[in-house]
């Protein structure tokens, strides 16, 4: 049954343009899209504008602004194709969601997309009134997959540059390491779930080839956050992984590394979930499970304790 949801087997190095067109076509067929309330705006960086799509929840229950970086291997996806997921995120959290349309590879390889995300986050954190709030502490970075990689890297970059960073970040099945070769990867999930499911080892290798063509640069902590020599001073972090995902172990390892560096961390593994589950319908069990944990994270200070991945809430 899980295999029925496998991503199309395409040569991403050659067919990324076709994949983008198919994604846009599919989202255009999503009938509720016509009723999704959002506002289109942009952040200005020099002479260039970075599009940002703002989603308001039907019932706003929190002051938090979720600054969202979409997934898609740094190559596919955009604020249009993630509109259903962001609308669901706004309604399920009761938060405003600001989805960032960062530049994609291979037209704009690393670090172009990362710099877009850094610039948007920095502008909002330096002047939260841009987001319609008074307190920068209400800004939460959120990303899924490659977007979670970008969120983690943004937090690292802002600290390194001496800027105010976010107080909280939510990383959904993040990419944190460069090696997804079953023969050399340090993570068992790469060998257990790297074929036939939603994301494969071959596909993520293709994404890396397009995003960071120079293989040596993939060890840069801004590409592989797990390799950062100093993870101190990072935001309170929620890491959510999917049980049936090749990225599972590296995401949990990053959460543990953050905790070992003295940060407050919660790690949660969604049972039986596939990579990309954040784009499932709101009624899905995996979505309900994940958002229950997300809402608890948004509502409460993280309690001290042992940080251990599980199919349940664990914190440190």
UniProtKB/TrEMBL annotation:
Gene Ontology MF, one: hydrolase activity
Every Alpha/beta hydrolase fold-3 domain range: 66-278
Keyword rRNA processing: no
Entry keywords, A to Z: Hydrolase
Domain of life: Bacteria
Record keyword Lipid metabolism present: no
Pfam family name, one: Abhydrolase_3
UniProt similarity note: Belongs to the 'GDXG' lipolytic enzyme family.
PANTHER family associated with the record: AB HYDROLASE SUPERFAMILY PROTEIN C4A8.06C, ALPHA_BETA HYDROLASE FOLD-3 DOMAIN-CONTAINING PROTEIN-RELATED
Name of the molecule in the record: Alpha/beta hydrolase
Taxonomic lineage of the native organism: Bacteria, Bacillati, Actinomycetota, Actinomycetes, Micrococcales
């Amino acid at each position: 049954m899980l295999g029925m949801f496998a991503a199309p087997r395409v040569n991403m190095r050659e067919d990324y343009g076709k994949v983008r067109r198919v994604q846009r076509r599919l989202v255009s067929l999503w009938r509720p899209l016509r009723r999704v309330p959002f506002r289109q705006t942009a952040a200005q960086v020099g002479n260039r504008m970075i599009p940002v799509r703002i989603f308001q929840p039907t019932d706003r229950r929190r002051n938090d602004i979720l600054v969202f970086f979409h997934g898609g291997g740094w190559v596919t996806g955009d604020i249009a194709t993630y509109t259903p997921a962001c609308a669901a995120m706004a309604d399920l959290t009761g938060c405003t969601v600001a989805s960032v349309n960062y530049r994609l590879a291979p037209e704009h390889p690393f670090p172009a997309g990362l710099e877009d995300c850094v610039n948007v986050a920095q502008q909002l954190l330096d002047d939260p009134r841009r987001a319609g709030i008074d307190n920068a502490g209400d800004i939460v970075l959120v990303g899924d997959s490659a977007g979670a990689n970008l969120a983690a890297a943004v937090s690292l970059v802002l600290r390194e540059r001496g800027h105010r960073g976010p107080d909280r970040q939510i990383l959904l099945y993040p990419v944190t390491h460069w090696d997804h070769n079953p023969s050399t990867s340090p993570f068992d999930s790469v060998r257990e779930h790297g074929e036939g499911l939603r994301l494969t080892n071959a596909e993520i290798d293709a994404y890396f080839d397009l995003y960071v063509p120079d293989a040596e640069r993939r060890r840069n902590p801004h590409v592989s956050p797990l390799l950062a020599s100093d993870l101190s001073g990072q935001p309170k972090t929620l890491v959510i992984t999917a049980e049936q995902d090749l990225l599972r172990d590296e995401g949990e390892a990053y959460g543990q590394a953050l905790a070992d560096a003295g940060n407050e961390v919660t790690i949660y593994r969604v049972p039986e979930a596939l990579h990309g589950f954040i784009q499932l319908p709101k009624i899905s069990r995996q979505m309900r499970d994940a958002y229950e944990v997300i809402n608890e994270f948004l509502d409460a200070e993280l309690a001290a304790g042992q940080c251990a991945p599980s199919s349940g809430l664990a914190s440190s």
